[in-house]
Amino acid sequence: MELYEAIRTRRSVRDYDGAEVDHAVLERLVAAAGAAPSPYNAQPWRFHVATGATRDAVCEITALSTVHLQEYLDVLPPSRLAQAEHFFASLGGAPVVIAVTVPCSDDDLSRINEYMSTGGAVQNLMLAATAEGLACCNLTFAFWVRDKLSSLLGIGQDREIVSLVLVGHPAEVPNDPGRLETIATYLG
């Protein structure tokens, strides 16, 4: 798939068919993520790829996150809360959950650099998945349950989870939600 096509067609998918993803494909996705730029080639990202029983245990933990969402979802209809509870308990049936981590840092500039670099790595991973005919969804909700996730995945206290990326074969492909057209000011 051509790069601009992958950029144009990538969507956040929340419903997967559950079919396994070949390990060699996962290795290509992680390699694409690792090719992202970072200041001084620091490569602050690490990817913790959960499949099978580990992925199921991740779902058990992420299901707890809706407890923390309750106060925000009280303003929504009950069906939306039920949808959220189902999604977080199953993660849309995605057979692969990738926890993305960065080093813990108290230095603001270091944190910004780590987050920006890792965001680029996640985007590379998602575009590579699109090129492979797969779908992804980048979740940043994990802050409520990230200590439990870190324990499960063997992530040390020197790193923090910044997102979970769901990967799998899409059961649905969302429509193009449209994009803003006035995002740049050209000067000169």
Describe this protein's structure:
This protein has 188 residues and is an alpha+beta fold. It has one domain: NADH Oxidase. It contains seven helices and four strands. The protein has helices at residues 3-9, 23-34, 52-62, 65-73, 78-90, 108-131, 146-153; strands at residues 46-50, 96-103, 135-139, 159-168. It starts with a helix and ends in a 20-residue tail after the last strand.
Identify the overall geometry.
globular
| Share of helical residues | 40-55%
Largest sheet: 4 strands, antiparallel
Task: Provide the spatial order of strands within the biggest beta sheet.
Answer: 1-2-4-3
Strand content: 5-15%
CATH fold call = NADH Oxidase
What is the total domain count? 1
Task: Provide the fold topology.
Elements lengths: L2 H7 L13 H12 L11 E5 L1 H11 L2 H9 L4 H13 L5 E8 L4 H24 L3 E5 L6 H8 L5 E10 L20
Antiparallel strand pairs: 1-2, 2-4, 3-4
Question: Quick summary of this structure?
Answer:
The protein is of the alpha+beta class and 188 residues long. The chain has helices at 3-9, 23-34, 52-62, 65-73, 78-90, 108-131, 146-153, and strands at residues 46-50, 96-103, 135-139, 159-168. It has one domain (3-168): NADH Oxidase, CATH 3.40.109.
Question: Which terms summarize this structure?
Answer:
alpha+beta; 4-stranded antiparallel sheet; 188 residues; 45% helix; NADH Oxidase
